[in-house]
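Q: Make up one entry.
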Amino acid sequence: MHLGGPFGRRLARALLVAAALWPAAGGAGEWHRDHALVCSDCHTMHNSKGGLPMRYDDAADSASRLLRGAGATEVCLACHRGDRPSSSAPSVLAPSNWDPPGGGFGADLADPAHRGHALGGEPILPPEGSEPVSMGCATCHEPHGNASYRNLRDDPSGRGRPTVAPVVEQKVKAGEGRPGDVYLRANLVYVRGMSQWCMSCHDLLDAGHAAADPLLGAHPWDRALFNSTADFAAWRALTAPRVPVQNAAGLPAPDEGDQVFCLSCHKAHGSPNDAALIHADGATRLSTCQQCHNL
């Protein structure tokens, strides 16, 4: 095809405009942006390559949205299940007390009773929530990528609540350095917004937080860890792995501005413990509580 003349010039201009609008690789965006993922990793036009299905489950039927799996969660787990040698994506099926920060989902993703969020797709009523939510990977994460930490969506409940993705500082961002470093707890400083983001689904907790009184049945959050100089001294002297904290100034722990927030006690995906709780010593709930409540 000859690309000279007016058509060639229009095509060249269109390509230059597209290049200018396309985000630069290695920028501030999170995973699944730029060149970290291509369309055919998740979608297939005809579900056929060399006469063989292109779905990750080898099913011959086509799926909605041209996905390479029965649904969005199945496509996500094709890489994030942790059993594909060709994938560098972290596994989300290994519940943990520590790294990775998000923890992991239980073996039965459809069981709402397992120790974390369920991914069965059927609407379930969240603890301290007012409306059922259909949980899947794309409930919380934008599969096509965005500029937020871990591709987190605004308003994950989908109820139109004024919730924006939290602010989290990272020493190593997506697309920089070694991918494994991005997922280490030591790489992160939680700045603001995570508790409010969680309450997009767990919205009834807000009533307890308004009075900021744990005697009302809700542990306070986004509150200073310390009531005294002695409390901060104990936090600073702590030798065990510290639970996550929030710091509005973006300073790493230990710092006088450290605050307790949702992820100080719970893992986002799940943990081996009831209510997806963190056990700081890997065995007891008390080891987590006593990091703030020094006895």
Notes: Residues 14-28 have pLDDT under 50 and may be disordered. The longest helix spans residues 5-21. The first strand starts at residue 123 and ends at 124.
